[in-house]
Amino acid sequence: SLSDRLNDTFDRLRGKGKLTEADITSAMRDIRMALLEADVNFKVVKDFVAKTKERCMTAEVMESLTPAQNVVKIVLDELTELLGSTESKLVLSSRIPNVIMLVGLQGSGKTTAAVKLAYLLKKQGRSPLLAACDVYRPAAADQLATLGGEIGVPVFRGDGKDAVEIARGSIREAVDNMRDVVIVDTAGRLQIDEQMMQEAVDIKRAVKPDQVLMVVDAMTGQDIVNVVSTFAERTDFDGVIISKLDGDARGGGALSVRQVTGKPIKFVSMGEKPDSLETFYPDRMAKRILGMGDVVGIIEQAQEMADAKQIENAKRMLRDGFTMDDMLEQMAAVKKMGGMKGILSKLPGGQRALNQMGGNLDEKIFDRNEAIIHSMTKAERLKPSIINGQRRARIARGSGTTPADVNSLMKQWGEMNKMMGKMRSMQQQASGKKGKK
Ligand code: GDP
Ligand code: MG
Fold first, then answer.
1. pTM of the predicted model as reported, rounded to 2 decimal places
2. Any known ligand binding at 385?
3. How confident is the model at residue 391 (pLDDT cuts 50, 70, 90)?
4. What ipTM score was computed for the predicted complex, to two decimals?
5. Dist CA 271 CA 338 (whole Å)
6. Most C-beta atoms within 10 A of its C-beta, which of 254, 259, 286, 367?
7. Is residue 352 annotated as involved in ligand binding?
């Protein structure tokens, strides 16, 4: 992957200590190849490498004590710049209802993105309404209705025939039902054609959206730039949502969009679940690409979930030890953050580790362990040390697992508990010292 390639280049530089011009030239050649192979637009690559090289070739960098470090920093800077420097948040106007319209080719991920956006806004305390304006695909409105139902957001379908009329109707519906944001999901075509563009223009004229966002599929590769540019020629829009960035797309198109079209990337979509739409932060994305990890993102996610109860729980665990119920909760939290994969992919070097595992991360263990814990009695969960051979066999039967599975969970619990014990004694030592002062 791009991250691996870039990291190999950086590793080579680090191994050198002092850098010569030839070292930098060769590193820049590697970076150029890596970007091209990741499908980044050739002109973007050319400019990027020229700028980066110029900044690296200064005496300041080459004669510094940590030249390789400086090169990495410059690449990071330039990559961030390429992606748009600062984030371009979705700003809702004071108009009620706010109207956000999604456009894009068929299959690009509009409907999925509409639902995710609705979910995100709902979590922020808004009351969104989804408007089903794709009247061409027979099951399009059903798809939206099902997904909307899953996240508890109403879907306006109107007569199901006239897209412009449905869009208009959805605004009235929102006003009547106190919904403060309308998200208009439109129809796409396999290719940009006259009819699709005209319909987009007509809907825009009818509902005057506050924001028009174009959804593009990361897998489109080089062609993303053409699609976005052609679209922009016919009707203006405010930003881009890049979908399917979780797939094995090389992602180069995403790296080119901002530079070539001048349109900011607002969100990236990283999966099929409703909570997998992320605000796009150029610096974090650049770090992710360089394998430096999105530690800030993880902390934010964790903070979102940590409430007073969890802090209370942590204190109790330190005091009384780690129960099976705690283990259940912990597994649920990891799942919520996208599973081990979701967390690993954001940690420094994590994406690399994942690639090396070749997707062999067994998330099913979670489900199995959950089933096992659910088969324990209350007493067993609170005091797992009472689980003897007989109990173990019963739990295995109840959860459809084997005693060996139960054993391995018990072992995990034992290790967790040992760790808690260590932390407890560390804490006691620390507070003991303070007490003596
Ligand atoms: P539309 O035709 O533009 O409305 O596209 P859809 O929203 O129906 O999406 C097309 C397909 O792509 C569906 O199977 C979605 O589940 C899938 N999809 C959409 N967004 C993502 C994403 O971010 N990640 C993944 N893995 N799949 C996605
Ligand atoms: Mg659709």
1. 0.70
2. no
3. very high
4. 0.99
5. 9
6. 254
7. no
